[in-house]
């Protein structure tokens, strides 16, 4: 059974999530405010739509309610990320994963009910540091 995911924001982070999910056979709706991003992903994902997700009616028209998991990968525009997350929450999305830009952004996202907040650069930095330590231990 295919599971449905929506990914909002097709930067490096959101784009790579779209690619991986699609390669694994998942049904992905990719959304971005910029047409060129949608053109880049329209042949990779099942559905690709140009939309501004800070508009509540747009989110409703997209039928976002029907998605079991929505990933918000809007980065620099923190206001758009927070507004989008808030509306997804109000629309009753069960699982919302959001990319945070900094610690304050993360705090707000947790307060408004994001289920999973990620900091790709920080999290990856931590992981690599631990890998370096364990490799060094094995080498000695
Ligand atoms: P990355 O590090 O993953 O490349 P980033 O942190 O630099 O991304 P941005 O490039 O600022 O993040 O945002 C990611 C995408 O989100 C962009 O392609 C941008 O067009 C899209 N985006 C920004 N605002 C909105 C919005 N209101 N609705 C939909 N998409 C949006």
Automatic annotation (TrEMBL):
Biological source species: Gracilibacillus dipsosauri
Protein name according to UniProt: Potassium transporter Trk
Residue ranges of the TM segments: none
Domain RCK N-terminal: residue ranges: 2-118
Record-level Gene Ontology MF annotations: monoatomic cation transmembrane transporter activity
One record GO biological process: potassium ion transport
Domain of life of the source: Bacteria
